[in-house]
Amino acid sequence: KATRTPLMAGNWKMNLNHQEAVVLVQKLAWTLSDKRHDYGKVEVVVVPPFTDLRSVQTLVDGDRLSVKYGAQDVSTQDSGAFTGEISAGMLAKLGCSYVVVGHSERRELHAETDEVVNAKAHKAHAADMVPIVCVGEGLSVRQAGEHVAHTLAQLDGSLAGFTAEQVVGLVVAYEPVWAIGTGEVATPEDAQEVCAAIRARVREVHGDAAADGLRILYGGSVKANNVAGIMAKDDVDGALVGGASLQVAEFGGVCRFY
Ligand code: PEP
């Protein structure tokens, strides 16, 4: 765990226009520049709506901010007659370092299958961005005790076709759907159970280097006051943060988990 840089990614979802985005990123950069804290050891990423990315790029480049940014989704296609879609090439050109793929809201509301998520992950990777591949079970699956099997099946499908050398640089986010936006946080033990199972599966399929390098995030109602216990777990390398990432003080607190 010590060799993996902690990653805190703020998924803004469909919130903040480009002007509001600039204000939030400026405030965040100000918070992260506070020398009383060792923010330098954490990788901090914001994931705004597509329409904000150009403004965020201009701000980050112009002021040489340490914040990185990514997109919430990407097309499975490179270009052409796909109205409303955004390609990996377009996102890479805007300086995105990361792309969230397979968020539960995409899987549920837009019927994205593991095959679609896998295709998106490959497009992001081929364009030199890191896919943050989201997996996780809903409430009924958890209640049936099938959460590990369900999540590993999603993992296998979503990571199909990646080599061990590629997997080492990927990010997987375990997000139990019942804990997203509900205020219901999985316990650190719940998070560790599934994150450990994910790493074990990667070790089985791709070997030690991939398993030891892969970063696994937990997501689901993470806030400044519950992040430390989750981050203390061996197989949790960071957090994918929704609601709390819209408040700078709260997200700053998450980035200061240690
Ligand atoms: C998310 O959308 O990825 C998420 C974890 O949301 P929240 O933190 O609001 O539960």
TrEMBL record:
Active site: 103, 175
GO biological-process terms attached to the record: gluconeogenesis; glyceraldehyde-3-phosphate biosynthetic process; glycerol catabolic process; glycolytic process
Enzyme nomenclature, EC number: 5.3.1.1
Known pathway: Carbohydrate biosynthesis; gluconeogenesis; Carbohydrate degradation; glycolysis; D-glyceraldehyde 3-phosphate from glycerone phosphate: step 1/1
Predominant cellular place of this UniProt entry's protein: cytoplasm
Known catalytic reactions: D-glyceraldehyde 3-phosphate = dihydroxyacetone phosphate
Binding site for substrate: 11-13, 181, 221, 242-243
Signal peptide as annotated in the record: none
Record GO terms (molecular function): triose-phosphate isomerase activity
Record keyword Magnesium present: no
Record bears the keyword Ribonucleoprotein: no
GO cellular-component term (any): cytosol
Compartments (UniProt record): Cytoplasm
Entry-linked InterPro entries: Aldolase_TIM (IPR013785), TIM_sf (IPR035990), TrioseP_Isoase_bac/euk (IPR022896), Triosephosphate_isomerase (IPR000652), Triosephosphate_isomerase_AS (IPR020861)
Keywords: Cytoplasm, Gluconeogenesis, Glycolysis, Isomerase
EC top class named in words: isomerase
Family: Belongs to the triosephosphate isomerase family.
Reported function: Involved in the gluconeogenesis. Catalyzes stereospecifically the conversion of dihydroxyacetone phosphate (DHAP) to D-glyceraldehyde-3-phosphate (G3P).
Assembly mode: Homodimer.
Protein name (database record): Triosephosphate isomerase
Naturally occurring in which organism (per UniProt): Nocardioides psychrotolerans
Origin organism lineage: Bacteria, Bacillati, Actinomycetota, Actinomycetes, Propionibacteriales
